[in-house]
């Protein structure tokens, strides 16, 4: 049976792994490297285009630059949900899909806050990358195989649990450190079904790949505040996330499966070992201007050289190059302590442009989006209900590539409370 499997494999060549030009059922751009990279911004920061490296709102946990956590003087809990509608278009096909789920959770509280020193710590959970694609097609082959139906699909992704700390030294210098535990599993399959079925009986042949990671990543950050006037401040910040060889368990098998039950009847292991994937370093810088609690405007720049990525077998990532992203955003709160509710609402807007890590047909895939956000106050301690709509486009239909248009609806809640305050009695 082994010779039969590999004989069929030789006839098909590498075609089973080639991205299909047939029906596109889910995003193919998540099939490269470790998948589609996810923003670390909370829902509140997404309303400002995802900015936060150069500063952020003092009532929102800053997950973009840990140094600014020291500005948070309240105990805060943040949770975010996201729903997405996406269309996928080529010159010859169209499809749409809808997804949704939990986006992030974070909890932070100040440990110490005095005139010349402050310290806030935070724990959280957020996605790191997502894999979700399915491509279906068929083709005629030379020889006895006849028509071959092919499916390429993948699911899963990686997440992080993190512990972040931000400290303030004096009045203006902020330093941060963050430890991430990266974990998760990605499963990818390339399936071929033959017609007529008597080529290999009522079966199909599949290449099954599973990669599970569990390891630590670290990040250091800093920020500095310049007082331009009594109410106006300029803040600059940056972060550096170290590259790492993350522990990975990899399994690749070639299988013949029953069409009726979908279970393997024969399986040959191509690779089964523990190794590492190399995740490249990341870096970013930002600048923001803020007037008291009335308005903030800022710009962030992020960079990560995914051309340095290596998979568990030491191979460079197929069709990967260096990624960079520019984000510009702002939020206006007309009068945060007003008796008029609408004047206490935060109105946010932001835009981003990204050169993603993916290269197809010699073109680097780009992503452009616009965000609109509202921060609706629900308490006098600064708790807010945050809603954000993101509208964007990724890719192009040129050279028969895939263009994705998306609308994302984000709903988040930030609870702020004064904890650990000792009561005083006369």
Brief synopsis:
Helices cover 4% and strands 62% of the residues. It contains 3 helices and 18 strands.
| Order of neighbouring strands in the sheet with most strands | 3-4-5-6-7-8-9-12-13-14-15-16-17-18
CATH topology group:
Porin
User: What does the average pLDDT come to?
Assistant: 87
**How many domains, in number, for the residues?**
1
Contiguous runs where pLDDT drops below 50 for at least 5 residues: 1-25
Number of helices: 3
Structural class: mainly beta
Radius of gyration computed on alpha carbons: 25 Å
What is the level-2 CATH architecture name? Beta Barrel
| The first-level CATH class name | Mainly Beta
* Quantity of strands, as a count: 18
Order of helices and strands: HEEHEEEEEEEEEEEEHEEEE
Tell the overall outline. elongated
Portion of residues within helices:
under 10%
- Tell me the strand percentage band: over 45%
Distance between the termini: 87 Å
* Biggest sheet record: 14 strands, antiparallel, barrel
CATH level 4 superfamily: Outer membrane protein transport protein (OMPP1/FadL/TodX)
């Amino acid at each position: 049976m082994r010779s039969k499997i590999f004989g069929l494999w030789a006839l098909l060549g590498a075609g089973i792994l080639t991205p299909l030009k047939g029906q596109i059922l889910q995003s193919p751009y998540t099939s490269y490297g470790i998948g589609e990279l996810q923003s670390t911004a909370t829902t509140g920061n997404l309303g400002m285009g995802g900015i936060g490296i150069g500063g952020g709102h003092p009532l929102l946990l800053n997950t973009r630059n840990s140094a600014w956590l020291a500005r948070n003087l309240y105990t805060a809990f943040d949770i975010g949900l996201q729903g997405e509608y996406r269309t996928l278009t080529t010159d010859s096909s169209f499809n749409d899909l809808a997804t949704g789920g939990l986006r992030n959770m974070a909890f932070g509280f100040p440990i110490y806050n005095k005139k010349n020193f402050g310290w806030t710590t935070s724990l959280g959970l957020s996605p790191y990358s997502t894999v979700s694609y399915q491509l279906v097609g068929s083709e005629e082959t030379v020889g006895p195989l006849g028509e071959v139906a092919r499916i390429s699909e993948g699911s899963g992704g990686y997440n992080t649990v993190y512990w972040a700390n931000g400290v303030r030294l004096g009045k203006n210098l902020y330093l941060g450190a963050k430890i991430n535990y990266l974990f998760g599993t990605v499963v990818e399959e390339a399936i071929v079904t033959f017609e007529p079925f008597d080529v290999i009986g009522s079966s199909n042949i599949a290449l099954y790949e599973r990669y599970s990671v569990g390891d630590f990543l670290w990040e250091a950050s800093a920020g500095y505040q310049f007082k331009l006037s009594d109410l106006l401040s300029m803040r600059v910040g940056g972060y550096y996330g170290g590259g790492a060889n993350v522990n990975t368990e990899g399994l690749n098998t070639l299988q013949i499966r029953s069409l009726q039950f979908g279970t393997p009847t024969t399986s040959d292991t191509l690779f089964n070992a523990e190794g590492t994937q190399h995740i490249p370093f990341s870096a970013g810088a930002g600048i923001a201007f803020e007037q008291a609690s009335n308005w903030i405007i800022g710009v962030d720049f992020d960079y990560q050289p995914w051309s340095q990525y290596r998979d568990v077998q030491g191979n460079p990532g197929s069709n990967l190059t260096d990624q960079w992203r520019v984000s510009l955003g702002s939020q206006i709160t007309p009068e945060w302590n007003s008796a008029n509710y609408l004047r206490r609402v935060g109105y946010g807007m932001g835009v981003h442009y990204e050169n993603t890590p993916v290269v197809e047909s010699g073109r680097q895939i780009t992503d452009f989006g616009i965000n609109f956000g509202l921060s609706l106050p629900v308490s006098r301690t600064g708790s807010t209900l945050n809603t954000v709509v993101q509208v964007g486009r990724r890719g192009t239909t040129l050279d028969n590539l895939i263009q994705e248009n998306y609308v994302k609806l984000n709903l988040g809640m930030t609870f702020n409370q004064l904890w650990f305050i000792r009561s005083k009695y006369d």
